[in-house]
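Need a sequence for this fold. Nothing fancy.
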């Protein structure tokens, strides 16, 4: 599931970041999934098996969509940080738009 247009989803994620509608990092993302605030989880394809399982299981049990992105460097770059493995979107609008770009 490699994305056709990396620039589109990355710039949208950057916008969401500037709007302060995202959380990055495994623990914080899990917390947001539990609290029901996470609307979409982005997981890098190069995340460890452990992290991948933890996040996907959490997403399944709390009914939060989870999408794979090519790698942690793209995910980090999109939000202007170093490599990031997990990013949670906290805004319904951004989440919906990103889902259309990532399908």
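Here you go.
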């Amino acid at each position: 599931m490699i994305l056709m247009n990396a620039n589109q989803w990355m710039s949208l994620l950057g916008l969401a970041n500037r709007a302060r509608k995202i959380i990055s990092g495994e623990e914080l993302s899990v917390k947001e999934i539990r609290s029901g605030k996470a609307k979409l989880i982005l997981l890098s394809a190069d995340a460890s098996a452990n992290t991948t399982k933890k996040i996907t299981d959490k997403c399944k049990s709390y009914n939060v969509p989870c999408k794979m992105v090519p790698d942690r460097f793209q995910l980090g770059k999109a939000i202007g940080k170093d490599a990031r493995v997990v990013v949670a979107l906290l805004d319904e609008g951004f989440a919906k738009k990103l889902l259309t770009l990532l399908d």
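For context: The mean pLDDT is 93.
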